[in-house]
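Recall the central idea of this unit: under ordinary conditions, the amino acid sequence of a chain determines the structure it adopts. In this exercise we apply that idea directly, starting from the sequence alone.
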Amino acid sequence: MKNSLKLVSASILAASLYAPIAQAEISANVALTTDYVWRGVSQNLDESPAIQGGFDYSSESGFYAGVWGSNISFGGDDSVELDVYGGWGTELESGLGLDFGIIRYTYHGSPVDNDLDFTEFYAGLSFAGFGITYSVGDELGDQYEVSYGYDFESVSLAAAVGNYDISGDSDDYTYYTAGVSGSFGGKSELGWDVSYWGTNGDGEALFGDFADDRVVFTISKEF
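Accordingly, the structure predicted from this sequence is:
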């Protein structure tokens, strides 16, 4: 569940659609990861590797949209998660970043997948490497996350702590992550990321082994 926190505004979205194509950028991404972890919880039953990828559109007006997918396995049946999202983001002269949008999570290939689809609206603020995001779902509860990232010459460091109320009825847990990322360089421009993920006792009580502490290694490429 690729989450870039945003909150939809109909007026901003409509105005952005008139941005000239010459000012737009379309990119693609693909990744291979040792485990797909979302908000501290593995999305694969046996913590197996995942192949992920997507396409993104962005314009100078700040409007963006995209689609992203990954293989998953919740109950033994392999299936696919496909996310579609759109929103608007900008950075003010003061350095304050704003990000608003909506994302639709859909699941395909398993008999139980049709019952899992849901939508989230979300908003984010960022400044000087710090970020805070908040999201609320149409069927699930709300989530907030505080993060910090710092770029060195050759590597970047990032950490985050969040809380997710999965039912809107006090079934919440806390998750945390810290990692380092960089690039192999050369013509391939392959990116790499090593991240540690964990949850508190409430997460382990809700999800069992899916919420165990783990280290995830990812190799990625953007086009």
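The first strand starts at residue 24 and ends at 33.
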